[in-house]
Amino acid sequence: MNVHVPDNARRDLALVGCPQCMFRFETPNYRLGMRHRCPECEAAIKPKYVRRAQDSGYSLSFHTFLQLLTMRPYRDDIVPLIGAWFGYEAEYEGRSLTIRNAAGRAVDVEQMHEMIQTSSRWQEILYRKAGKFFR
What we know:
The protein is of the alpha+beta class and about 140 residues long. It has helices at about 60-70, 75-85, 110-115, 120-130; strands spanning about 15, 25-30, 35, 45, 50, 90-95, 95-100. The chain contains 4 helices and 7 strands, in the order βββββααββαα.
């Protein structure tokens, strides 16, 4: 899966490993917790964390992003941002989260996270909101 990596994320590369073939490769910190295609064996995987890079800028990992969307009180502040930016709505059934667009179709949360991380404005706003919870 080829993904555009924002310039400010290039220095935030974490070392991860493929659980299938044990090949190690780098990925931006903000993609930790997301699906990848192993560059060696081409398996669709969620890589195992080996070493996280020091964060710079305002990037948030996908894992943190999911926490913000699913856990109270975080979601009460974060979901309205998503609604304002994209016109999306969040539905919760137990611990299951579904984000829907204005037409009612399910949205890929990983793609939404990628879009936020490629916008320096949205990235900073989300980071500052998250910061009030994780201090």
